[in-house]
């Protein structure tokens, strides 16, 4: 039982997931701060950085507007500063493997096929 637990803990996917979770938590504070900065700029342009008190037909919709703006900012930050550079780096460092050589029997069959195709029809 202990051996099974040890194998479970040391699986590559589990370790990678743990590292990704920790990095995500660390990155969350960066994105949160960046969102606050952008909300400040939106407030300078729009006049109010916090939309929490905005009402529409007597219903408070400001918290939803805040959450929506924060979501769009987080998605943009993740896409432009994480996903795009990662995809570019992955494409740059990805090894291209040469095509595998065909076995001798396949080459022989292809040669027979080509010879039969060139033979005059009777």
Automatic annotation (TrEMBL):
Q: GO CC terms on record? A: membrane
The cellular location(s) given in this protein's UniProt record come to: Membrane
Report which residue ranges the record marks as coiled coil: none
Q: What Pfam families does this protein map onto? A: MscL
Report how it sits in the membrane: Multi-pass membrane protein
Q: Where are the transmembrane segments?
A: 12-34, 54-82
UniProtKB keywords:
Cell membrane, Ion channel, Ion transport, Membrane, Transmembrane, Transmembrane helix, Transport
Provide the GO MF annotations for this entry. Answer: mechanosensitive monoatomic ion channel activity
- For whether the record's keyword set contains Transmembrane helix, the answer is yes
Q: What is this protein called?
A: Large conductance mechanosensitive channel protein MscL
